[in-house]
Amino acid sequence: KKGYSSLPQAIHDKYGPTSALIFAGCVAYRLYNEVWSNSRVIADFFGRQTRNVPHSNGQGTRTIDASDGWWISAILVTLLPLSYVFLGGMRSSLISDAAQTVVAVIFLVV
Known about the structure:
elongated, mainly alpha
């Protein structure tokens, strides 16, 4: 509305280029957190991110990195939605969120 084709364009015209860059940075930060948190939640269905194992000397435990299954699922769950978003924008992002929900529900039931 009001002659603007996008929110960043409106911010740029009303508040200047610095405000538009700050807005873009905030959006990028928010998207990063959203994508990574979704990936982490789904990846946790396929393994643990970290685990505690006994020290070789038998005293206490130490934390080791995630299982291979966790990393594989985290990468796949991140790449699938990103490919839809890059190919089709917000509409495909919503479709991909719906598809992820269906897959998550299926895995919870099975």
